[in-house]
Amino acid sequence: MIRIGIVGVGFMGMIHYLAARKLNGARVEAICSRDEKKLAGDWRSIQGNFGPRGEMMDLSAIRKHRELDDLLADKDIDLIDICNPTHLHPETAIKALEAGKHVLVEKAIALDPKDADAMLSATKKAKRLLMVAHVLPFFPEFAYAAQAIRGGEFGKLLGAHFKRVISKPDWSADIGDAAKTGGPAIDLHIHDTHFIGLVCGVPGHVFSTGVTGQGGAVDYLTTQYLYGSAGPAVTCSSGAVAMKGRPFVHGYEIYLEKATLVYESGTCPLTLLRADGSTEQPNLTGGEEATAAFTIEMQAAVDSVIANREHAYLSGKLARDALVMCYREIESVKSGRAVAV
User: Fold this and answer.
1) 249-256 and 259-264 beta bridge pairing
2) What are phi and psi of 47, to 5 degrees?
3) Is residue 157 a contact partner of residue 261, using CB atoms and an 8 Å limit?
4) What does the buried/exposed string (b/e) look like for 22-33 if buried means 16 or more CB atoms within 10 Å of the residue's CB?
5) Residue ranges per structural domain of the chain
6) Residues 142-170 pLDDT 10s
7) Phi, psi (5° rounding) for residue 82?
8) Phi/psi class of residue 282: alpha, beta or left (left: φ > 0; alpha: ψ in -120 to 50)?
9) Percent of the chain having pLDDT more than 70?
10) For 175-233, how does the pLDDT look when each residue is reduced to its tens digit (9 = 90+)?
11) What class is the 137-285+322-340 domain?
């Protein structure tokens, strides 16, 4: 049984806690928070852009820690699940690794690539796993797309366009604060750079245009990922500039040699278009609950700990490369030039 300790009881901490209820071979044993109400089980103040709102929770079977060091000293914890704010990820993860714990850390891995590099060095030294919880490849539509591209069933990837757009959330004042989250071009868009890195690899250059907000954070951008003359031709638009009437939307059009994949959340279910003109909606697995993809993600982390082998989707290096791509795109927006990755 893999015993999990969650650090941070905000929205993502709650989602991870709920998702962990359906894990096989693992359970949440402890939580760490400095919020006395949350330690007492009053999670009613928690809300996000999807899934359930917080409620009163029965934490009678959960050990509670107010200080990280106390949680890390708990010998009955195998895996530290880090869900505190992004700017705290490096210090928390490195301490956990040095304490001999495996680590699952919410995206983004860090705010500074140098800190991400330090985390990767720490995991090698500690001989423990550092896994980064980029959940997008575990959503059924994106899991299908990843398999279609990586598996080669429909031939090689020719091109793709990805999209991720929200209105500026009134539930998170921090998303535009680059000092805490990096702003939408990192906190939101890193889902896309991670997935693009997973299925296409890291491009040689990026060229981006975008909109910079009052605080200096890039609020919206469109990027060309430049892989050279051999392709593929990949673009993405992402940001937080839509009006409140526009719900969160993500999706893609993916062009393979023998098929096209089309998906947009809320409007177009995943559709496979074949060369003969036929179309179908693939059968997807993963569950309908808002936390289903997170359960699959956390199960992958648990299985990785059991096998002592990193899951490709949770790779720390892939997460680090996704962070670097975001910064190169921000540089391109502000310079007006293509930037080497």
Assistant:
1) antiparallel
2) -155, 160
3) no
4) ebeebebbbbbb
5) 2-134+293-308, 137-285+322-340
6) 999 999 999 999 999 999 999 999 887 66
7) -95, 115
8) beta
9) 96
10) 546 667 788 999 999 999 999 999 999 999 999 999 998 778 899 999 999 999 988 99
11) alpha beta
DSSP state string for 81-106: EE-S-GGGHHHHHHHHHHTT-EEEEE
Region of 242 (left: φ > 0; alpha: ψ -120 to 50; beta: rest) is beta
Structural fold of domain 2-134+293-308: Rossmann fold (3.40.50)
Give the C-alpha separation, 315 to 303, whole Å.
14
Distance (Å, whole) CA 285 – CA 280: 16
Q: Which of 132, 184, 230 is nearest to 329 (CA)?
A: 184
Bridge partner list, 97 = none
Total count of residues recorded for the chain: 341
- Radius of gyration (Cα) for the chain, nearest Å? 20
Check whether 120 has a pLDDT greater than 90: yes
Q: Tokens 């929205």 identify what position?
A: 11
**Contact assessment for residue 191 and residue 184, using Cβ atoms and an 8 Å cutoff:** no
Report d(CA 33, CA 47) in Å as an integer: 17
